[in-house]
Structures are given as C-alpha cells and as structure tokens.
Specification:
The protein is built from nine helices and seven strands, in the order βαβαβααβαβαααββα. With 256 residues, it is of the alpha/beta class.
Length: 256
C-alpha cells in the first residue's frame, strides 16, 4: 500500500481524469489523496478519495467568471497567472500532509514540482493532450495564425522552440519568487526543465490520437483516454432529467 497524492489544476476537464486515476489506484489497494480547488470535494469524496481543498468557492468562481479567459491570445495567460498564484498553496499543503510516496500532477500544478525538489517526493507528470509536447516533428497547431510553423523543417522548429517561450515569459518570474521564498532550486526554464518530471511521465491518450515522437521524453507510459463519466458521483438533478426526457433529444454545445 502506497500513499499517492493527486494534484490536478483547472476546471472539471482537468480534474475528473485524476478522479478516474484515483479510483484505479484505490482499486489496487493504495491510499489516495487529492489536493485541488475546493469545488471538487464532493466528487472526489464520492469516489472514495481523501480530499484537501484549496481556496474558497468565491475564489474559484472568480476564475470561471474572468471574461479574459475567452479572448484569443489572452486566455492562456490568464490561466497561467492563476496557476502561478495557486502553486504556493499546493506546495504548502504537501508540506502539511507528510507520509507521501508518490505525487501525480500536470505541468500547470507548478507546486507539485516544487514539492518534489523540496521534499524529495517522486513525481509523475500527467499529460492529457498531445499539444503539451510541442514536438518539432509533428507540431500541433498552436494558434490559427501559426499554421506556417508546421511546414518548417525540423531543424528550424528546434531552433524556434529553443528561444524564450510563452510559458516562461508569463509564469517564470512569479515562480522564481516562490522558489526563492521556500528554498527550492529555481528552473532556468519551466517549459524545458519542469514540463516532464525526471521520475516519470504518464500520457493519457492513445497512439492513434497522438503518435509518440522522437523528441518526447524517454521515461513515459502512454495509456488510453480516461473514459469515466462519473455518473455515480455526479448524478443529474431531477429538473435536468425531466428536461432530457421531454420531447426530442437535444443537441448540446459545450467548451472543452
């Protein structure tokens, strides 16, 4: 039996796959604790996962109500700013828990990497989408205006990807301050030094969706999509069931 701490950051689409992971780990006899924003407490505990909530409901709702998230070219910066702001809370909660054998977290949970380096706890980075790797071989479409980037030769893309990048420009100054305050060795680049944990990388999408490329990390395990609808943990309200049962089946549009 091991104590595994899951540290997702983001909205439901980023957190529910970690609840799926937690259920699998529990089924194999491990103790699982989730550390993330407080609004996911009910869903995590319904799956039998211990929960440590960060922040208040009002703080979390403020993120979702930030209209800048929906602006092209601005949304990523807003999310990264919030990730930096919350990273210190992740680090502090890990320090309080103790007795942790393994952490699992996405790149944006910067506090997880800080905790690895400060407390010596192994960390597995969890990637949910191929775009995270930003391969010079099969390059994702990063922005509607950057289609030309995919047509460049590999050597040219390698050079461009070695230059200062958006995540470092947006997040590194804030991360450096937190690292200094907590005695953690600072990275030179979040993207190149902290994107993938040296202890292991878990890729949660199949090869037909994202084929491994030569510049992916060597220590990765690729699995399938986290196909868990969480219907048992998140039952529909009576009003919604009545609406769906009335008349023809509706068409639903949803982001993410």
């Amino acid at each position: 039996m091991r104590h595994v701490v899951l540290m997702p950051f983001g909205s439901a689409g980023a957190v529910f796959p970690f609840i799926w992971l937690g259920k699998l780990l529990k089924a194999r006899g491990h103790r699982v604790t989730m550390v993330t924003t407080c609004i996911f407490q009910e869903a995590a505990e319904a799956a039998g996962i211990d929960f440590v909530g960060l922040g208040t409901v009002e703080e979390v709702e403020a993120i979702g109500k930030d209209r800048r998230i929906w602006k092209l070219g601005m949304g990523t910066k807003v999310v990264i700013d919030y990730a930096v702001k919350w990273s210190e809370r992740y680090l502090e909660e890990i320090g309080k828990l103790g007795g942790i054998d393994l952490m699992m977290a996405p790149l944006t949970a910067f506090g997880a990497r800080m905790a690895r380096d400060k407390y010596g706890i192994p960390l597995v980075t969890v990637h949910l989408q191929p775009i995270v790797f930003l391969s010079a071989y099969e390059t994702p479409l990063l922005h509607p205006w950057l289609g030309w980037l995919r047509a460049l030769p590999v050597w040219a893309k390698r050079f461009l990807f070695s230059l200062p990048n958006a995540i470092d420009l947006m997040a590194l100054p804030g991360i450096l301050k937190i690292c200094k305050a907590h005695g953690v060795e600072s990275p030179k680049s979040l993207w190149r030094d902290w994107r993938d944990s040296p202890d292991g990388v878990l890729v949660l999408f199949p090869k037909w969706f994202g084929e491994p490329q030569p510049d992916w990390p060597e220590n990765f395990l690729q699995w399938d999509f986290p196909l868990e609808d969480l219907s048992a943990q998140m039952p529909m309200k009576k009003e919604l069931e009545e609406f769906l049962a009335a008349g023809e089946k509706p068409v639903v549009f949803t982001p993410g």
